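Q: What residues go here?
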């Protein structure tokens, strides 16, 4: 009895420790595993995304470029930890808060890496990059000084399905599982540690912008990701956590989509469904696991789903 009890107490202590160590703090780098760092960005005040960086024998791989000003902040924090060169920066997708800081990393000598869908997205949303007049970059430059003072540098090292960094010490697999938050989402998967950097394909809180992806395929994509059985999820926005974040993200999209589908099948049009959004919201918020995903994007999410399901 006693040894078994000790074992039980031992494992309880371990899991408590794991929980405590996963409790992040905005702006404070956290070493999730040896040489693997997570940084929760200041979303509220600065609109920042979360970052990660992995320290290999000879170089550093950064997960997400963030905004230009945020990239400088992150770089300074990396420099407090290691003087190894930042050789690669991944854009988990094309959005400004994940990719507009590319120029900062490039100036460090880093190559910007992304799934090839990121370039296709940039061709659609960043016409200014191709000499065709203003797009999203110009829109942000009018609002953000750091963007106005920088320039858009697209990724130059592209992969179709996966790209693997492995120096015998660290192994990071960059994988595209399909359309989700955008058409170019990349996950950074560390199989030895079971750590997943998900970009905005999986967030922890009311941050699901759905305009550039496809919500039905998003669910399928995240189901494929779930098969990896990650132990730690470093989301694109919000707190770091365990595999439950992935479960809740899937459940939120699926639950909302089921509500919308039932109304579409009932013959309701966009206007009628939009008018029902307070009722749908109340229903979703009754589910404790996913209530925290309901936020300012809610009506736009419903609209997107109606367009997909009609
Ligand atoms: Zn995004």
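A:
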């Amino acid at each position: 009895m006693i040894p078994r009890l000790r074992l039980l107490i031992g494992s309880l202590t371990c899991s408590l420790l794991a929980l405590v160590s996963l409790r992040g703090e905005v702006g404070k780098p956290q070493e999730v595993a040896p040489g693997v760092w997570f940084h929760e960005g200041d979303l509220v005040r600065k609109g920042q995304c979360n970052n990660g960086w992995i320290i290999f024998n000879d170089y550093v791989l950064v997960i997400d470029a963030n905004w230009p000003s945020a990239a400088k902040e992150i770089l300074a924090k990396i420099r407090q930890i290691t003087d190894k060169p930042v050789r690669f920066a991944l854009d988990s997708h094309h959005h400004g808060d994940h990719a507009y800081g590319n120029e900062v990393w490039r100036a460090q000598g880093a190559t910007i890496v992304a799934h090839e869908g990121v370039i296709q997205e940039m061709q659609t949303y960043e016409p200014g990059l191709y000499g065709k007049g203003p797009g999203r970059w110009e829109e942000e430059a009018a609002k953000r000084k750091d963007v106005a003072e920088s320039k858009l540098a697209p990724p130059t090292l592209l992969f179709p399905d996966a790209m693997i960094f492995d120096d015998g010490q660290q192994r990071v697999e960059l994988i595209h599982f399909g359309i989700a938050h955008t058409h170019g989402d990349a996950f950074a998967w560390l199989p030895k540690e079971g750590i997943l950097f998900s970009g905005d394909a999986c967030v922890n809180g009311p941050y699901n912008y759905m305009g550039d992806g496809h919500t039905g395929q998003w669910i399928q994509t995240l189901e494929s990701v779930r098969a990896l059985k990650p132990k730690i999820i470093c989301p694109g926005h919000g707190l770091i956590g365990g595999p439950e974040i992935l479960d809740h993200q899937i459940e939120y999209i699926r639950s909302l989509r089921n509500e919308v589908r039932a109304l579409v099948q009932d013959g309701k049009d966009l206007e009628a469904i939009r008018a029902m959004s307070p009722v749908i919201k109340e229903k979703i918020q009754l589910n404790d696991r996913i209530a925290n995903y309901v936020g300012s994007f809610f009506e736009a999410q419903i609209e997107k789903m109606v367009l997909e399901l009609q």
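A: Context that may help when evaluating the design: The chain has a mean pLDDT of 93. The chain has two domains: 27-242, 243-310.
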